Amino acid sequence: MTYKVIIPAAGLGKRMGAGKNKLLLELNEVPILIHTLRVFEKDDLCDGIILSISPQEEELFKELLKTYQINKVEHFVHGGKERQHSVFNGLKVLAGFDGIVLVHDGARPFIDTMLIHELVAVTSESGAAVLAVPVKDTIKKVANDEVVETVERASLWAIQTPQAFRVSLLMEANIKAEEDRFVGTDDASLVERLNYPIKIVKGNYDNIKLTTPEDLYFAEAIIRKLEKI
Length: 229
Ligand code: CTP
Ligand code: MG
Known about the structure:
By secondary structure, the chain is of the alpha/beta class. 34% of the residues lie in helices and 25% in strands. The strands form 3 sheets. A 7-stranded mixed sheet has the order 5-4-1-6-10-7-11, sandwiched between helices.
């Protein structure tokens, strides 16, 4: 089954502290965003990319796509204040499309194609699924610099992207979130508010989101590992 993918790329990269959109930083002399886009460009099941970008970066990003021969971007939309708004703007161009849409962070370049396919297969049955990995650290709730309680680790999973949905379901979830002025940190949290069950597909620990400067060192190590495979 084929799918479309929305890639939010309109962030400011504040935590990376590079003074520009972190997706323009290079790994192996190639911008992070291009690494991410290449995965979908090469995946035969992906039949269209919707890229959500800042208006002031539109020309720059279009040039990059030409340079690196990324041809599957069928729509550019403008990002919003929060990631959720950037995704919703992308989703609006898919209104009426009766299929599966993935949402994948531009800042996660190491997503594995086999896992994308597993996610799409599960979503075609269930309507909603996310990639996730078991949490490795012990997690405690803290208030005022004091431990409140330890959360049982066995039930904790770190949620990644891609997250995959039937288009109509994600649309309904975004409309409701907007009506309720709810802003979530991922797309599934909006669908959860409809009480719709969301399946977990176990991913891998390489699929990091490049967020803070030290993530770039991890990224270099992951690239070296993937090059050896
Ligand atoms: N994003 C977006 N629109 C926003 C905020 C984020 O499209 N208003 C995108 C980012 O470009 C990134 C993804 O959503 O690909 C995940 O967000 P995050 O890692 O938080 O990136 P930034 O928002 O750019 O970073 P920061 O929060 O540190 O400013
Ligand atoms: Mg952010």
